[in-house]
Design brief:
The chain is of the alpha+beta class. It has a single domain, classed as Creatine Amidinohydrolase, CATH 3.90.230. It is about 30% helix and about 25% strand. It is built from five helices and 15 strands. Strands 8-7-9-14-15 form a five-stranded antiparallel sheet. Strands 1, 2, 4 and 5 form a four-stranded antiparallel sheet that branches. A three-stranded antiparallel sheet has the order 3-12-11, with no helix packed on it. α1 packs parallel to α5. The longest helix has 22 residues. Bound molecules: magnesium ion (MG) (2 copies). One magnesium ion binds next to loops. The site of one magnesium ion has 6 residues, from β5.
Length: about 270
C-alpha cells in the first residue's frame, strides 16, 4: 500500500533528504586517493549526528556502518573498510539519515582523481538515466513508465540494468511501497498518486546486468567484474509533478561544478 504524505510531512522529508545531501557534499571534498572508506564512514556518522539526525543504515537489517561504500565493480551495499582508494577508482556512496521520524536516502558515484573517459561516460549516462526516470514520475503514469524510461535510455547506451535491486517508496520506513524497478513496461504497475515519495536509484553496469554477492552477505558486485554506477534521488509528487527533495548541489559546490540539471524538478 502506498503511504501518501501530507505537505507538512513532505517538508519534514525534505529536511531529512537535505541532511543526506549535505553529508554527500561534505564527503565530496574528502574523496581522494589514499583515503579509506572506513574513514569516510566515520566522518559521515559524525556529520549526520551533528545535524541532529541518526544514520539511516547503521544497524538496519544489521548493516554494520553508516554508509554503503561500493567501489568499482561493486554495485551497492559495500561495507566500508581499510583499503585506501586509488587514483582512477570510482566509489558509489549511498547514505541514509533519519530525522523527525522520516528517512532521507540517496546516493552518488564519485570519481577518485582522474578516471578514464569510458568510466566518465558510465557515470554521466547513469546520472542522466536518473533524471530520465524522474521525468516520468507524474500523475497519469505508473511504476512501469519510470522503469521503462530508465531501461531504454540505459540499454541504448549499451549498459546493463541491474534487476535484483530496485528503488522504493520512502517515509517513516526506509523501504515502503511501491518498489521502483529500473526496468519495466510502459503502462504497467501501480498508479502514481499525489503526495507519494519515492527513492529512484538506477544501478548501471558497464557490462552485463548480472550480479553476484560476496560471502559477507552484503556486497553486490557485477558478475563480469566491470564497473558499476549508482545515483539516487528522493522525489515527491507535488501538484502532479516530480519535486526533488534531495539535491546534488552540495556535491557540485565542493567539486566546483556548475549545473542546472535539477531546475526542472523544483517548483519553489
Ligand atoms: Mg540509497
Ligand atoms: Mg534507496
Amino acid at each position: 500500500m502506498i503511504i501518501v504524505k501530507t505537505p507538512e510531512e513532505i517538508a519534514l522529508m525534505r529536511e531529512s533528504a537535505l541532511i543526506v545531501s549535505k553529508t554527500l557534499g561534505m564527503l565530496a571534498g574528502e574523496v581522494k586517493p589514499g583515503v579509506t572508506t572506513l574513514h569516510l564512514d566515520a566522518l559521515a556518522e559524525t556529520f549526520i549526528r551533528d545535524h541532529g539526525a541518526t544514520p539511516g543504515f547503521l544497524g538496519m537489517y544489521d548493516f554494520p556502518n553508516s554508509l554503503c561504500m561500493s567501489p568499482n565493480a561493486q554495485v551497492v551495499h559495500g561495507i566500508p573498510n581499510k583499503t585506501p582508494l586509488v587514483e582512477g577508482d570510482i566509489i558509489s556512496i549511498d547514505c541514509g539519515a533519519l530525522k523527525n521520524g522520516f528517512y532521507g536516502d540517496h546516493a552518488y558515484t564519485f570519481e577518485v582523481g582522474e578516471v578514464t573517459p569510458e568510466i566518465k561516460k558510465l557515470l554521466d549516462v547513469t546520472k542522466e538515466s536518473l533524471y530520465v526516470g524522474i521525468r516520468e514520475l507524474k500523475l497519469g503514469n505508473r511504476v512501469g513508465d519510470v522503469g521503462y524510461a530508465i531501461q531504454k535510455f540505459t540499454e541504448d547506451h549499451g549498459y546493463g540494468v541491474v534487476r535484483e535491486l530496485v528503488g522504493h517508496g520512502l517515509g517513516r520506513k526506509m523501504h515502503e511501497d511501491p518498489e521502483m524497478p529500473n526496468y519495466g513496461k510502459r503502462g504497467r504497475g501501480k498508479k502514481f498518486v499525489e503526495g507519494m515519495v519515492v527513492a529512484i536509484e538506477p544501478m548501471t553496469n558497464m557490462g552485463t546486468h548480472r550480479i553476484k554477492q560476496l560471502k559477507d552477505g552484503w556486497t553486490i558486485l557485477t558478475a563480469d567484474g566491470k564497473p558499476s554506477a549508482h545515483f539516487e534521488h528522493d522525489v515527491a509528487i507535488v501538484n502532479g509533478k516530480p519535486e526533488l527533495l534531495s539535491t546534488f548541489k552540495y556535491i557540485y559546490d565542493a567539486l566546483g561544478i556548475s549545473s542546472n540539471e535539477e531546475d526542472e524538478f523544483r517548483q519553489t
